[in-house]
Amino acid sequence: MIVEESILINADLKKVWDTFTNLTCWKDWNSVIMDVESDVKCIESGCRLSCNFRPFLFPINATIEIQGVIPQKSISWSVKKLSLIAEHEFDFQETDKGTLVTSREIFDGFIIKKAGFFMPKQKIHSLTKAFLNDLKKASEYSE
Hints:
By secondary structure, the protein is an alpha+beta fold. It has 4 helices and 7 strands; from the N terminus they run E-H-H-E-E-E-E-E-E-H-H. The chain has helices spanning 13-21, 26-29, 110-115, 121-141; strands spanning 2-9, 33-37, 48-53, 60-70, 74-81, 84-95, 98-109. The chain is globular. The chain starts with a strand and ends with a helix.
């Protein structure tokens, strides 16, 4: 399963990047990934974040491992939980109208292959949209 979504943020690339990568502020704007804990204050390659997602009624504890960071260009991370694997990439592109952020997530594993109804694409897509909208509001608000 692949979930992809983009959003145009009316803020410069540096502001959007700083908002996204500063983990100490996620609790102030991020309604999708909650209770984030990490040994670092900003996202960097190789770091890990423990967090909670709430795609349904119950929270799911997870560990996000940052696979790669290209400053002001892209961030990739992975989440492995039981038999679910999610590879997520965020691309940041400065345009004349602001910053275009594209989220692309690929889900794999037993749950997706054999019991995909537990991970409905529409629900995952709505969480991706919410995350990007939260980032937009946070980046534009503090402009």
